[in-house]
Amino acid sequence: MAFLNALPGAVAEGLIWGLMAIGVYISYKILDIADLTVDGSICTGGCVFAVLLAAGMPVWLSVLIAFLAGALAGVITGLLHTALGIPSILAGILTQLLLYSVNLAILGGRSLVAIDPRANRLLLHMSNNPMAVVTAGLIIVATIVVLWLFFYTEVGLTLKSTGDNPDMSRAQGVNVKFNKVLGLAISNGIVALAGSLLAQYKGSANINDGRGAIVIGLAAIFIGLSVSMKIKPNFVVSLTGVIGGGVVYYIIYNFVILLGLKTDYLKMLSAIIVTLFLAVPYLKGEYFTKQKSILPAPTGEEEAGGEEHA
Asked: The pTM is what?
């Protein structure tokens, strides 16, 4: 019963983190960049939203500016990588470190800013999980539709080609550097959007909210794609699978908490889940490859003997 009571909250939070995972999907799967900026940009989205809302700005405008703040963080990572020649993974780490100080400054030096759901008409909050599920679901559907329309435009297709084969794209006259910056901006903008929703849902923006976000995003991607790629490997189904992966991850997360696992070990649980989804396909391929190589290939004499017998 305790698990069933916690299920709506797990689904609501899973949807929010699934939206964040869509941002990770764009950088990791489409651009082929392991971007660690997300640990900072998800927190940036929450911090910007909380401070603007406290200053009297409307909820929808605070969410929009939070998205733009995350996109700006992605632009910084992209420029560090493309303009300064810093490897992408290191560029993400540098921006992430930068954002910690920026987020602390946004919060006015405090580690936490509370959001009062009674004083503000929030989009979603944990006090009403069914409504939070509906609202998060509608925002996710709108995000997937916009991304689907964008990635089938000329700019979107060239962005895909940049991730698939940058050398060939460059030879065809595609501005690969611009596409990388644009892709990272979109990715981190969506991550910050999820951060603004997470701050509303929890009722606070915390300077430590983003720690381990990349691991949760990767877990949602690998869980979701392991199912969606077997159904129909296209863009919309993949994004839907990523959202489902986020929900499954948080259902497992809450179930493990109810079993009595100490919260100190939850990050380790996330790492184990990602490790399993990364390692199992590799070990499976290695095992079957070795099994096939052990079996002797049929000789010409055996084939001829078989034909005579037939």
From this structure: 0.88
